[in-house]
Write a structure and sequence with these properties.
binds zinc ion, five-stranded mixed beta sheet, Nucleotidyltransferase, domain 5, 60s Ribosomal Protein L30, Chain: A
Amino acid sequence: MTEQTIHPPTTASLSRLTTIQGDDRCVLTVYFPGSLTTGPKAANKLMELPENLLGAESLTPDETEHRRRSLDLWRIAIRKVDFPAALGWVGVVSWLTEDVAFMQLPVAVELAAYLDNSPFLLPAARLLDDFEAYAVVYADHARATIYLAALGKLKEAGKLRGEIKNHVRKGGWSQQRYERRRDKEIHHYCRAILDKLRQLIESERLRRIVLAGDRILLGELEKRMAPGMRKHVVCRLPMEDKKGPHEIFQETLPSAAEQERREERWLRDAIRNEHGAGGRAVVGPADTLAALNEKRVRWLLIGPMKGVDFWRCPGCGGCGLGRPPACPQCSQATYAQSAANEFTDLAFAGGSRVEFTGDDLAELGGVGALLRW
Ligand SMILES: [Zn+2]
């Protein structure tokens, strides 16, 4: 029987989920809030969830069969999963390949279900982009805590004691010796904090660091960071009093979100300038799709792509932009898919980085990318 895998909320997990594919619409994707995984009747409610969400009208006989088999597999899978805590979930089942996978989400999502030839991961990918995990160093001269900010809260990832005393007023040689010893203690303390921080960044593949706490100590810490690490520091928050993880999370979240918007703006300008200069960039659905298919995309910037049609053929698997009523290759009736989801799938399959924006990107024709070559 199939294994149920539980994935952490990372882009690596998204890439793994995009490998679940079929020519037919045989892949079921279900979004649900974490609250539905707790309580005495949780499993029963979850088991019937997609059936209620997924209309059977306008399905072909083949698709109706896929729907029935997917719902059966979903019911079996749900009974076996022991869900860890999470604010939200996306589940994917494919009865043809016997894949069952769940991924944690950083927020409580609304209920939704989709039946398609691949998982509908666009909402999940958008959420991961908007709520990207980051590292927090909260430190003063006495103690330091390193946190992982993810899934809507701070999780402790390491703790250190500094216990570095304040300056003592003395004169002469002993004072100098005292200062030297104190400098050395600060040096070792900072190096130990940075070691722990590096471990967290590497294991969680984080791109953002927030420094909070005593201003002077944070300065000492940053001075000792390698340039590669220092460029990931997105904000420095002096905090005077002792604060709990919840407070620290509430105060650091806006800076992390602001960094997200800065990155979007930077990428939009970079694509526009590079494309204007005839460099390695594409804009608009047609050119971007061609670059995605050739795996040339380094960094995709994608808006909602409303009004851009995308079709797929259930017969031969053909697909493309536009809305032909019949497949140009085999004349079967086509069905419509979300262009933004297809583009995102291709980007993850090609190892591209993806940046989502709520902006319609009118100046780029809705979508654009920086290219590898
Ligand atoms: Zn066809």
